């Protein structure tokens, strides 16, 4: 995946942004930097603060404290219409009585753009999203995917430096979500604008973003490239939230990490402050004759076929329930109730200090 130019500087910087709604602390002195020309994802569950942060960046909400710097200038007091930022809402918010062309032209008309300049920009925006020929249609004549493209064209026609996307693929079916996701990436590269996407879907965030911020309780739990966060989560929360890793409690010992609930010792370089380890389901393999550290015995409690693999739920000797992804190419999965021996590599054990 081609990311932003490493030489690009910060476009937007949030400094100690705090927001309360009554007694609820939605954002807790949050710091964040968006780089010029990157595709950035804000990932988190309900109540994590991701949508609140997006609305503050757009100018629809005002923080109780902190600064929001665009090119070094604080824009907290700048109204939404005066910011070089556009937002595509989850509902698309199209005007039902307007044609596709008029919906796309709405922002240009409000900005007083001359008709001679607006017409080619509207045509170019519709071409960019593959809707040339749809100019006269009304929203009720469009599919869900086409409505989304109109909303995207309406945002892009304003040539924003920063485009905010609120759950942009949430209303689409699975097949259309994947295709539209690739199209979003292509459009982001073509326009050169920075895209900031809010999503609760971890697969979307991992597939589309150059960088991902995982939010928890109004703070950033971890920030970095998708692969780095997925493979080396920083905490129990990130490990469980992103990719549903197995998290096993225990304590660091001279040999590595001892987990009573797993009934196993995890060998490897384990820091002394480690309180748990994470182990991805796809990193665990069935190994009938394996013994020693980085192995465990258990019983298959359940299995679910997922196409390329079968997800096994294995109850370990110490009582922990381990998720194991058994690839189809590795043969038939074991039956429910069958005993298995599991093994993994020391490099796949991720120490967690919190």
Automatic annotation (TrEMBL):
One of its GO terms (biological process) is putrescine transport. InterPro entries: AAA+_ATPase, ABC_SmlMolc_Importer, ABC_transporter-like_ATP-bd, ABC_transporter-like_CS, Mo/tungstate-bd_C_term_dom, P-loop_NTPase, Transp-assoc_OB_typ2. Residues 12-242 form the ABC transporter domain. This is Polyamine-transporting ATPase. One of its GO terms (molecular function) is ATP binding. It comes from the Bacteria. It holds the Pfam family TOBE_2. The keyword ATP-binding applies. One of its GO terms (cellular component) is ATP-binding cassette (ABC) transporter complex. PROSITE patterns: ABC_TRANSPORTER_1, ABC_TRANSPORTER_2. Keywords: ATP-binding, Nucleotide-binding, Transport.
């Amino acid at each position: 995946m081609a990311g932003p130019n490493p030489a690009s500087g910060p476009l937007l910087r949030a400094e100690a942004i705090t927001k309360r709604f009554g007694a609820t602390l939605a954002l807790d002195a949050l710091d964040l930097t968006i780089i010029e020309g990157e595709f950035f994802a804000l990932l988190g569950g309900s109540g994590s603060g991701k949508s609140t942060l997006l609305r503050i960046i757009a100018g629809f909400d005002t923080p109780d404290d902190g600064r929001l710097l665009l090119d070094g200038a604080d824009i907290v007091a700048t109204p939404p219409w005066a910011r070089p930022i556009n937002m595509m809402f989850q509902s698309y918010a199209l005007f039902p009585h307007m044609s596709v062309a008029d919906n796309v032209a709405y922002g240009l008309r409000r900005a007083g753009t001359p008709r001679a300049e607006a017409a080619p920009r509207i045509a170019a925006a519709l071409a960019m999203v593959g809707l040339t020929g749809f100019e006269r249609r009304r929203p009720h004549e469009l599919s869900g995917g086409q409505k989304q493209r109109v909303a995207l064209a309406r945002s892009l026609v304003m040539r924003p430096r920063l485009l905010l996307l609120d759950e942009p693929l949430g209303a689409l079916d699975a097949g259309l979500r994947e295709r539209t996701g690739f199209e979003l990436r292509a459009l982001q590269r073509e326009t050169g604008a920075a895209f900031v996407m809010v999503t609760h879907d971890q697969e979307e965030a991992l597939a589309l973003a150059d960088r991902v911020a995982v939010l928890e309780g109004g703070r950033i739990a971890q920030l970095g490239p998708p692969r780095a966060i997925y493979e080396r989560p920083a905490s129990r929360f990130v490990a469980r939230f992103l990719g549903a890793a197995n998290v096993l409690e225990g304590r660091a010992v001279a040999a590595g990490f001892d987990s009573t609930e797993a009934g196993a010792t995890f060998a490897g370089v384990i820091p002394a402050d480690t309180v748990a380890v994470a182990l991805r389901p796809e990193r665990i393999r069935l190994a009938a004759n394996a013994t020693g550290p980085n192995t465990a015995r258990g019983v298959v409690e359940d299995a679910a076929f997922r196409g390329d693999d079968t997800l096994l739920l294995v109850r370990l000797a110490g009582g922990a329930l381990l998720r194991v992804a058994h690839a189809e190419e590795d043969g038939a999965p074991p039956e429910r109730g069958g005993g298995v021996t599991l093994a993994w590599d020391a490099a796949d054990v991720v120490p967690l200090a919190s």
